[in-house]
Amino acid sequence: MNNILEIHNLSKRYPGVQALDKLNLAVEAGSTFGLLGPNGSGKTTTLGIVLDVLKASEGSFSWFGQPLSRNTKRRIGAILETPNFYPYLSAAQNLKIVADIKGVDHAGIDPVLETVGLRARRQSLFKEFSLGMKQRLALGSALLGNPEVLVLDEPTNGLDPEGIAEVRELIRKVAGQGKTIIMASHLLDEVQKVCTHMAVLQKGKLKVSGRVDTILNQHDQVIISTGSLEKAFVYLQQIPQVKQIRKENNELVLSLADGFSSADVNQVLFSQGIVLSQLTVRKKSLESQFLDIIRDQTTPTV
Amino acid sequence: MIQHFATELRKLLPYRTFWLFLLLYMGLLLLIIFSASHVQINNQAVGANLYVFPDIWATLTYIASNFNLLLGILFISLITDEYAFRTIRQQVIDGLFRADIIMNKFWVVLFIGALCSLYVFSLGLSFGLQHTPTVTLAKVLSGSMHVVYYLVQALGYMSIAVFFAFLIRRNGLAIIAYLVYTKIIEPLIHWQVPDELDKYFPMKVFSSLTPMPGREVFEAITGPSVQLSPQQAVVPALAYIILFYLLSYLLLKMRDL
Hints:
The structure holds two protein chains of two kinds.
Chain A: E1 3-14, E2 17-28, E3 32-36, H1 43-50, E4 58-63, H2 70-74, E5 76-79, H3 91-102, H4 109-115, H5 131-143, E6 149-153, H6 161-176, E7 180-185, H7 188-194, E8 197-202, E9 205-211, H8 212-217, E10 221-226, H9 229-238, E11 242-248, E12 251-256, H10 262-271, E13 276-282, H11 286-295
Parallel strand pairs in A: 3-7, 3-8, 5-6, 6-7
Antiparallel strand pairs in A: 1-2, 1-4, 8-9, 10-12, 10-13, 11-12
Chain B: H1 2-12, H2 16-36, E1 40-41, E2 44-45, H3 46-50, H4 55-65, H5 68-84, H6 87-94, H7 98-131, H8 137-142, H9 145-168, H10 171-192, H11 195-198, H12 202-208, H13 215-222, H14 230-254
Antiparallel strand pairs in B: 1-2
Helix pairs in contact in B: 1-7, 2-5, 4-7, 4-9, 5-9, 5-10, 7-9, 7-14, 9-10, 9-12, 9-14, 12-14
């Protein structure tokens, strides 16, 4: 398998806090990878370490199967937390410095300014920019030199709805060019809209990682009603297809184990002589799925 | 390397603080030298004695040495700004390594040191030519080694400032620590420690590079103070300069950005 980024047993301790605890992760080439978690879960810490600005307490990582080098850095365009530029320099002057460091020809500056819609403001000083423009300039700076990988930390943070839509559109466009994108976000909605793969972090630990569609679909709930509620309740607690069950009014609410559907439940109950009067599959809201992932201590860490 | 230096210039040249400090340094130095050359003692212009070749080099570099702190403060601002703007972080993300960051700052220190030494040299030439009755090339150049000593001294003052900037990372605090160390702590140490030892302390080594002219007369009254000669001070001064960059590098390497 062709992995862009591999992380092995990465840990980061601050005095009194375990910011990252033995994280293992792999990002496949061509994927749009979302690193999801509440604030303080270790997303920025993880990105900071693989981008060489934070020191890992333990563990290792590799880009393109190689250790960090000038060459690997040039193949990555990254923004960490805030847009970082010289306030007294113009957009173009700032990007010239970035281009120098990345070893990119200055001819590449205007096209990226065009891409992020700042071409007309190229001579304006960075300090005069609005937050949205600063964010877009940072994105443009990350795109300089046409890197294979984009690393974005909360790219829509602090933007207005229009700005958020623009940035997401830009990310999809870039992903469409076959680039690998790694983005941190605390918004499940954003990850679900933009990403193909995701990993969920909580308190520095990996809760789950994999394809977005598999992770988000496996947590649907099945609600059943039947004349023989007690019998069904006892039986369903014993079979492996059911992961969790609880009684709610005159209904049973089930979470199914991986790989089973509501049809399987219907079939086994029927074979036991239990006839259902109602069977509903409830798609959980994204937020409650997210909370489930975070709360569910039994979710295997991958 | 040249590419890195060019990039540093892109940051430096549009930076207003740089021009402010450079102007302050050049203007104040010119003002002091100009007004001192017109001071009359016993109906005789002081300049007539101090501003002739080859003595002028020692005089001039001694006066210039008082303005080195300005250069140090400029560098503290340059470096702590990179922390405040977080551009230091972004540049490590974009492709630099920590050793590059230190080396780039060293090139800028060298550049500004050379610029100021060149300025001192040209001041020396113009004032010397005005005040020296008979000028020969040998006379002009004989004391000009002092400008090289001055260059080493300016590099020293800036290098210790670079160290304080990387150590403390905040503009105001770093400037205060720099001034307190150079102007208060080290002089206090000099006072407590035997001269044989304190002559090797960094600020004393740096100041030995531009001794006060006419010190011999002064010392006839107060007794000799033990101090390295400028020639002797060059090697320890260079060693300190290297040490300060090494320490800055270690700080940068050890800590998160």
